[in-house]
Structures are given as C-alpha cells and as structure tokens.
From TrEMBL:
Protein known as: C-type lectin domain-containing protein
Boundaries of every C-type lectin domain copy: 8-124
Superkingdom assignment: Eukaryota
Alphabetized UniProt keyword annotations: Disulfide bond
Source organism of the structure: Branchiostoma floridae
Family matches, as Pfam families: Lectin_C (PF00059)
Length: 128
C-alpha cells in the first residue's frame, strides 16, 4: 500500500482528517492518489473504516465515502454505479433526504449530507 494506507482484503484505505473538503474535491483528491472514495461494500470493510476513523486525532465528525444519491435510480448507489444490494449502515432516521445527496460516516454510522458540506474523507486504492 502507499504510505499511510492500511491494507485490508487486497485493498488499501486511508482516512483524511486534515483536508476537510466537499464531496467533489474529496473525489478529486482520491483520484490524484490513484484511487477513489472508499466503498465499504461489506460489514467487515465498513467496520475497518469505522475503526480507522476512531483512531484519528482531532477527527472531523463527518467523513465522505463513495456513495451518492442517484436521481435516475431514486436510490443511493456506489460510485462505481453498483447498487447497495442489501449492505447498509444508515444511522437512525437516515437517509433523511432533502438535498442531501452524498453519504458520510457520522459516529460510526452513515448519514446523508449536502455534497458541498466540508468533511473529512476516506480513499481506497488497490493493493499491489
């Protein structure tokens, strides 16, 4: 894995706490690292990310990951276009919609937030 990334099941993950930013800028940052926003498609990966967040010093409350609301499909979809397919870690009363079309970790669960909200973020790159 690149420096600062944690390896898990063939993929590398890194939590960015200092660079609070919008969803689009977070995406761009992950792309520049050679990856994309993390997609915790199973419970084990999701738990790893929650653990990584909890280890961060002075953490922001919210962390973007690769899940956004698709107007076309009228549901949240992963950034690679695949559906949630039964994986879910939404917090109580979430997602609560409105113009909150981006997903972020909040207190170990998922919340929907507006995409211009400034938050930390989590990147994933493929392991070598």
């Amino acid at each position: 894995c690149p420096d600062g990334y944690t390896s898990f099941a063939g993929t590398c993950y890194k939590v960015f706490t200092e660079e609070k930013t919008s969803y689009t800028d977070a995406q761009t940052h992950c792309n520049s690292e050679g990856g994309h926003l993390a997609m915790p498609k199973d419970q084990a990966t999701n738990q790893l990310l929650v653990d990584l967040i909890s280890q961060a010093s002075h953490p922001p409350v919210y962390y973007y990951f690769g899940l956004t609301f698709s107007e076309e499909k009228n549901e949240f979809v992963w950034d690679d276009g695949s559906s949630l397919a039964g994986v879910s870690n939404w917090g109580m009363g979430e997602p609560n919609g409105g113009d909150e079309d981006c997903a972020a970790f909040c207190s170990g669960r998922w919340c929907d937030v507006t995409c211009v909200f400034t938050a930390g973020f989590i990147c994933q790159v493929w392991g070598k």
